[in-house]
Amino acid sequence: MQEGHDSGTRVWWYANGTQQQGPVSAQELKRIAAGGGLQPDALLWREGMAEWIAASSVRGLLPVAEATHPASPASPPAPPPPPPAAATEGWSSPAALAPAAPPTWATASASAAGDAPWFAVAPRKLLVMSLCTLTFYNLYWFYQQWWRVRRRDGSDIRPFWRTAFAIFYVYPLFKRIRAEAQEAGLPPSFEAGTMASLFIVITLLGNLPGPLGMIAMLSALTLMPAQELANRTNAQLAPEYPRNDRYSGLNITGIVLGGLMLLMALFGSFLPEEETEEAPRRKPSSSAPVALAAPGSPQA
Predict the structure, then answer these.
(1) pLDDT tens digits for 87-108?
(2) 143 confidence band (pLDDT: 50, 70, 90)
(3) Distance between CA 238 and CA 115 in Å, rounded?
(4) Which of 3, 202, 273, 295 could lock 7 by a disulfide, CB 3.0 to 4.6 Å apart?
(5) Is the dihedral of CA 190, 193, 196, 198 positive or negative?
(6) What is the spatial distance between Cα 36 and Cα 30, in angstroms, rounded to a whole number?
(7) Other C-beta atoms within 10 Å of 176: how many?
(8) pTM of the predicted structure, to 2 decimals
(9) 16 within 8 A of 42, measured Cβ to Cβ
(10) Mean pLDDT over each residue of the chain, to the nearest integer
């Protein structure tokens, strides 16, 4: 039996009669068969197979004496839930060589020709556009990501409101990007809770007066790790999808106009505030004595 590079991944389920067990890796399954724990009429299943197959049909799995016994016509048990990670296997059986099916959410996303599960943008472009648009590009980024979640899930979530209240929904979005990357076989590259907390803190600091309020301009730095992982997920499931790492004419226009506004905002935040002085009130002069007329005397 020839084993592939991912033979250590637990993707196989087996059933002796009505007793269903798994998941196990290809190496573990071979050891079970060698120890007599896998009967010739046992059934095997892994993600990507349409139905259970007989263990005797997998060449090199069972000992020669047992593999020659015909499989019993017992009805197979119901397929188990899919394993947490999909992987291909290198056994010589044609059924075992079939690649595992992609996650359901990835299949739904790929229903649109050539589309990707996540909004694609180069992390550097995300940072530049966020700075030059005074973080308005962050709102566009949140809306695009939630819109794709709604489309492939068929759910009734409102991308607009999840964008408007991004500080409340940034953690669920980061958590989902991590989870779907793991389903695609990719290791997570950031902590959802840490990055979400930093985004919330930096965003709230934007309410401070003066130059401290400009700290909010750095909020895109907390979005970049999530976008980098989303891009790797896109490359895994939709390799032909554009990476969106170039600047269009509209992007350049926004960068120029927004860059000028950013410079003006930075310049204005460091200017000293002008103090307005009130005009002093005029007081009556006390230098000249005031002559008081005596009672009964004629006034001039």
Answers:
(1) 434 443 434 434 444 454 444 4
(2) very high
(3) 7
(4) 3
(5) negative
(6) 10
(7) 18
(8) 0.54
(9) yes
(10) 76
